[in-house]
Amino acid sequence: MNPQAFYRDPYPVYAEARRTRGLTFLPELDAWLVSRHEDVREVLRKPEQFSSARALRPDYLPGRAALSELVKGFGGVQAVLTADGDAHRRLRRPLTRGLSPARVVAALPFVTARAEALIGSFLGDGQVEWMAAYAKPLPADVIGHLIGLDPTDTPRAIHGAQRAEDLLFTELTEAEQVAAAKDIVALQHLLDGYARARRKDPRDDLITEMVRDLAPGSEELTLDQRKEIVSNLQNFLLAGHLTATALLGTVVLNLLRDRRQWELLCEQPQLIPAAIEEAARFEAPIQGFRRTITTGVSLSGTELHEDDVVFVSFASAGRDADAHERPDEFDISRPALRHVSFGHGPHGCPGSQLAKEQMRITLEILIRELPGLRLARTDVTMAPTLIHRSPEALHLAW
What we know:
Layout: H1 3-8, H2 11-19, E1 24-26, E2 31-34, H3 37-45, E3 50-51, H4 64-70, H5 85-98, H6 101-122, E4 127-129, H7 130-135, H8 137-147, H9 154-169, H10 174-200, H11 206-214, H12 223-257, H13 259-267, H14 272-282, E5 288-293, E6 297-299, E7 302-304, E8 309-313, H15 314-318, H16 352-369, E9 374-375, E10 395-397
Parallel strand pairs: 2-8
Antiparallel strand pairs: 1-2, 3-5, 4-10, 5-8, 6-7, 9-10
């Protein structure tokens, strides 16, 4: 199968893998697919046997010209996503504090104001391309706010983070690779400037938490400390933005694809939390991550050996009939369920509550202001990536 075709619609492959005894090896991923809910939980519970060291293997390696640009930046060191054990706990700690329930609650007035302003900007138009007008800019503004960026810096910071995804997961010409690398380096220098500024002038934001935790003390930051802080801020910018953007796209798409679901939500707004969980289960915002075997282990009857690679599919687990009734139906009225779409165990997504709050606020505004919302086009194409499951474009009308 063409990898791009698989990325756009992986669910038939997932379904076949769940029906097949043992694990299925996928050439498209060069990895064993972990497709069943209980197997996914098993892997995520045991990081000592299933290492995150190569969690995010690139689809495309940058060429020499792009690499010569990247060395001018501050990346190239371990980030929380690819760390294990004590290193993972140390790198995750500032994220946990920066995204604490209290911090998320404190950010809600900002989230609400931005959401209302964005929706208000196209409310009188009768139509909108949802992804560009709302699903991308809202999470960008929210992440920038929580990290502690000046609002004027947020667009180029998000642009730089997205260019990192482009460079590693999109086939680019040499010139396009070089352009992406320059944007990434510009982002890294921007974040480095913020980190050094926060060392001198701490504030109540995630950059300050990162500096305090990863570089204790008051002396000037070393080059190694700066690289680690920048790498982890860059990782958070991308992960936090993509997850929320994906969910804001798929929750609206699936609510409107079956008109009964949207009408039910308008009639019963108390179902908003259930709609959010169902959206996450039905279309996991991040399809999954790789794990590398550290010692021989048997999983679902398949013998795995040291250095074997598995792809742990959160999305396939969400469609497992052994865990969910009618798994291929999007149904916001289903009873509360347990899914793994935000991960599980030590690497569970620290920003899941923030993403859910953005969806809650969005849905509350939409059912109040645009109850007649509908899909203007039903030919929706999903982005060809497993890093985030979202429509490339979503045309709405009312």
